[in-house]
Amino acid sequence: MNTSTTAPHRWSVRVYYEDTDASGLVYHAAYLRFAERARTELLRALGLDHRGMAERSGLRFAVRRVEAEFLAPAFLDDLLVVESRPAAWSGARLALAQTLLRGERIICRLEVTLVLLDGRLRPARLDRALPKAFLAPLPRLGEPR
Question: What is the pTM of this model?
């Protein structure tokens, strides 16, 4: 996935006991929770919030696809940073590249595709919700990169 030149949104998260499995490592599903929280904070940074979007316009995001590559483990009490960067978009879909880091080391890479849904849970155009300045530098999904 080709990422845009936009600087990534960065969000920090501490690993708690509840995020680990019996072996003491961060459980694989916890990485998805960390990434979800970072995506929520990215939307907040754009002036959007999930509840406000749903109440004002009936619009909401849903995850359509996730691909994860686990490169190194994270441990209890680690401080991680989730970098989220928009990668591409089309009518109702937004692709994001997310990287989880422990210090300078990349420990997980995620490619996430979101869809924007209206109040009837049908696809809605992204430009109804996201600022055009956010979408402008991104390639359209399906275009050569």
Answer: 0.86
Task: Give the pLDDT score at 54.
Answer: 87
CA distance 40 to 52: 12
Residue written as tokens 């692709």? 95
- Asked whether residue 3 is assigned to any structural domain, the reply reads no
Range of the domain at 96: 9-131
Which residue type sits at 57? S
Q: Is 25 helix (H, G, I), strand (E, B) or coil?
A: strand
The residue among 133, 94, 137 whose CA lies nearest residue 116 is 94
**Residue 52 falls inside a structural domain:** yes
As given in the structure block, the two tokens for residue 65 are: 């696809």
Task: Give the count of domains, the chain.
Answer: 1
Beta bridge partners of 89: 94, 140
85: β partners:
97
Euclidean distance between CA atoms 97 and 27, whole angstroms: 20
Is residue 98 one of the residues assigned to a domain? yes
**Residues acting as catalytic residues:** 21
Give the pLDDT confidence score for residue 1 in this predicted structure: 45
- What are the pLDDT digits (tens) for 59-72? 999 999 999 999 99
CATH of residue 106: 3.10.129.10
